[in-house]
Amino acid sequence: MNTHKHARLTYARRLEMVRQMTEGGLSVADAAELHGVTPPTARKWLGRYLAEGEAALADASSRPAHSPRSIEPAKALLIVELRHRRMLQSSIARSVGVSASTVSRVLARAGLSKLSDLVPAEPVVRYEREAPGELLHIDTKKLGRIVRPSHRVTGNRRDSVDGAGWETLFVAIDDHARLAFTAMHPDEKQAQAVLFLKNAVAYYATMGVTVQRLLTDNGPAFRSREFRQACEGLGIKHRFTRPYRPQTNGKAERFIQSALREWAYGWTYQNSAQRTAALAHWQHHYNCHRPHSGIGGVAPISRLSSSRNNVLTLHTYPARPERNPGANSTRCGSCRTAEQLQGIL
């Protein structure tokens, strides 16, 4: 029973009241005064009790016993059946003899409002390459240039900077280790894509990882002859995602979401140069310190094969922390090494 908070009578109080009138000899008026209700209310519950017993004292549904405008179950089933034959809602309404709003309501309840709902959802296929370098994902994300903090910081949509332009974030992520490499470029044309690819391959080489295969979307830069020649020169097999299927490159897409949330939009930057400078620090944090849920809650760098000549070794066997003369905090040897690698590229 769902009784509101101001109810005078609950089921137990109603039963007590009618028993006082039937068994205790209390009058309707006296029983009503005792329980804080009007005599008509006491008489109503007494009548229900005498007619149907104790069950009649429970709260009844307010829904009417008969709804003349409700659709018959057979017609509702027919609407769903016609929808499975890919008929439009207007055609179904004419065929069944009901209004279009009724058809829409029935299909909404059945989860068939759109024709695309008739196509079964494809199962999620999760895969992972067995070793670092077997597959590299590359993707891009356009970001507005920052001239000064504007509407995203102030909250005023009118506080914008017109004509600031765009710059492009290129990201590369290893399919097995989830080790990422990022860089800001002025645009996403083929020259910048080729430059990023070469820098990414060089970065992974310093980690002891040889890139064998590459997966990108179907952007013009990645489809260009220059990019194809760069892949051939580096000995990389290039593959493309299925059109309109960003899930195929899901690891790069997911990395971009993390980068936007934790780096690009996670702090207030005074200009684009400040945001770009913060990217290298965030990338190192992502690779060497940030737990990754997709690989068991460890940092991506921990999935590289152990070697005393790479950054993983310095994390596994940390050197004595040294103080950076230009900073107020200590950094491990791997942090310094990662920053040096960034400076090389």
TrEMBL record:
Residues 128-308 form the Integrase catalytic domain. SUPFAM superfamilies: Ribonuclease H-like, TrpR-like. It comes from the Bacteria. Pfam families: HTH_28, rve_3. InterPro entries: InsJ-like_HTH (IPR055247), Integrase_cat-core (IPR001584), IS481-like_transpos (IPR047656), RNaseH-like_sf (IPR012337), RNaseH_sf (IPR036397), Trp_repressor/repl_initiator (IPR010921), WH-like_DNA-bd_sf (IPR036388). NCBIfam families: transpos_IS481. This is Integrase. It comes from Pseudorhodoferax aquiterrae.
